[in-house]
């Protein structure tokens, strides 16, 4: 199995377990993820994508496994990341990808419903992550 995408998973606990997510101005609600470059580990790709898409520096603390998207045919690697900064409840970050976009970041409670605002690919990814996190996500 060739892993083509890396997804850094940043979690926080307030009243419930929440995951870092963002609103793409053209493609709905999403998680940070991106392509694994040649000769790059999926963990290194996750850290790079976290910096590029969210402007956050972090480090991988555990591997959360993989997921195969039936929609795209791509296989993703999930890596839980720790960030030393205390992140706000929401913020925007300008990412250079695809000509540049301003992403609005927020925390999504893992126990809440995945509305139609979520891009279909990311609904599948989140459902898998919730299953992998098990009792932590409840």
From TrEMBL:
Cofactor entry: Mg(2+)
Pfam families: NUDIX
SUPFAM superfamilies for this protein: Nudix (SSF55811)
InterPro entries with a match to the protein in the record: NUDIX_hydrolase-like_dom_sf, NUDIX_hydrolase_CS, NUDIX_hydrolase_dom
UniProt keyword terms in alphabetical order: Hydrolase
Domain spans labelled Nudix hydrolase: 1-127
GO molecular function, one term: hydrolase activity
Protein name, UniProt field: DNA mismatch repair protein MutT
């Amino acid at each position: 199995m060739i892993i083509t995408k890396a997804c850094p998973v940043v979690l926080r606990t307030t009243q419930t377990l929440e995951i870092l997510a963002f609103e793409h101005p053209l493609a709905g609600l999403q998680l940070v993820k991106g392509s694994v470059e040649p000769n790059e580990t999926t963990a290194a790709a996750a850290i790079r994508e976290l910096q590029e898409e969210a402007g956050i520096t972090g480090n991988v603390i555990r591997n959360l496994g993989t997921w195969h998207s039936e929609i795209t045919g791509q296989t993703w690697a999930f890596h839980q990341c720790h960030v030393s900064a205390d992140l706000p409840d929401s913020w925007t970050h300008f990412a250079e990808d695809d000509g540049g976009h301003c992403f609005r970041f927020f925390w999504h409670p893992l126990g809440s419903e995945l509305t139609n605002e979520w891009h279909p690919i990311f609904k599948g990814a989140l459902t898998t992550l919730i299953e992998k996190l098990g009792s932590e996500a409840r």
